Amino acid sequence: MERVPITKTGYEALRKELELLKSVERPQNIRAIEEARAHGDLSENAEFDAAKDRQAFLEGRISELEYKLGNADIIDPDNLSKDRAVFGCTVILENVDTGEEVRYQLVGPDESNIKEGRISVSSPLGRAMLGKVPGQEIILQAPGGKRCYELVDIL
What CATH number does domain 4-74 carry, 1.10.150.20, 1.10.287.180, 3.20.20.70, 3.40.50.720? Predict the structure, then answer.
């Protein structure tokens, strides 16, 4: 079984989503199926079909979340060394060409959100950053061409 790194915050977000699906969404969907079933002929009942589709989605997502939580390896970024870029750390990068600085936290795939400054360690940039020390260059082949960053600092 492959362990998946995740921060405590990311783990709690997945746990809360699972709880919402089990305690709110699933019961609502069951009621929707019962109501649609009460309308009669199921072969031509669009509400019933939609409720059954929603049920399949919910059960799939619940299974997926249970698997992810069961394989989660919670890592506390505060206990990590700040000498190299590793999972959980926050880095400041400078685009060598433009001088623009960006700040990212290296997180697991389920936590990544570029707008919130969280980038997955499994993304091309995330993989390229791992193990780097401040002052090192990170060269990345992106769809728009080659990009070059300097790792300015690890927070």
Answer: 1.10.287.180
- pLDDT tens digit sequence for 94-124: 999 899 999 999 999 889 999 999 999 999 9
**Would you give the DSSP letter of residue 112?**
-
Q: Residue 44 to residues 4, 29, 52, 54: CA-CA distances in angstroms?
A: 44, 19, 13, 17
Q: Domain residue spans in the chain?
A: 4-74, 81-154
pTM, rounded to two decimals:
0.79
111: helix, coil or strand? coil
Task: Kindly report each contact of residues 73-79 with a partner whose C-beta sits within 8 Å and lies 24 or more positions away, as own/partner.
Answer: 73/3, 73/4, 73/5, 73/6, 74/6, 74/7, 74/8, 74/11, 75/5, 75/6, 75/7, 76/7, 76/8, 77/7, 77/105
- CA neighbours closer than 13 Å in the CB half-sphere of residue 73: 10
Type of residue at 72 = A
Strand partners, 94: 101, 150
Give the H or E element holding residue 38.
Answer: helix 26-38
Architecture of domain 81-154: Roll (3.10)
